[in-house]
Amino acid sequence: MSKVMIIGANGSIAQLVTQQLLATTTDELVLYLRRSQQLANYADNPRVTLVTGSSSDTDLLARAMVDVDVVYSSLGNGVHLDEQTQHVIDAMRQAGKTRFIYISALGAHHEVPGKFGDWNDAIIGGELVGFRKTAQLVAESGLTYTEIRPAWLTNANEVAYETTDLVTGFKGTEVSRASVADFAVKVITQPNTYQNASVGLNKPNTDGDRPSWY
């Protein structure tokens, strides 16, 4: 049994990760979010600790993770992600934690090729600045990290994905949130895998100039 901290626990992918961990493991969870009442359904679960706090509160983050084994961050968009993630890194150093898994975005390393890469940069270029800064500071942090870079997200009720790395480049244009959660849970429960790695996730056979709904 491990203890896992989920930062940004009210996010859609984070909630799927929480549900899967509770259903398929014996792990204990620390759910950290701005308004813990949003996850009040877990208040009486003996395996769950709810913590209300800001991602910018380094001291509270450090206290909340004092006895956890893995820190998983599912913070919001990329505009201020580097600033938020720096607080998490500082808290992990303060608490003596090393294993960090976090959600990033496709394009965080200029790795998306062709017309789709150009389209992606045009649509979310403002956010990508923060994702790119975050990738750099995490890589230089000394933590053992896994960066997860999903394609454009869907709510499809399916787990169907393939992985890519920065050498092979990015494939596909979309992937389900359920797929991202499934991969995150695999790394959380097998923390010796994908160490110091940046992993792209996409649904197979979704290559194109943009996601199917555009």
Automatic annotation (TrEMBL):
Residue ranges occupied by any NAD(P)-binding domain in the UniProt entry: 8-191
The species this protein was found in: Lactiplantibacillus fabifermentans DSM 21115
Lineage of producing organism: Bacteria, Bacillati, Bacillota, Bacilli, Lactobacillales
Protein name: NAD-dependent epimerase dehydratase
One Pfam family per UniProt: NAD_binding_10
Gene3D superfamilies attached to this UniProt entry: NAD(P)-binding Rossmann-like Domain (3.40.50.720)
Family matches, as InterPro entries: NAD(P)-bd_dom, NAD(P)-bd_dom_sf
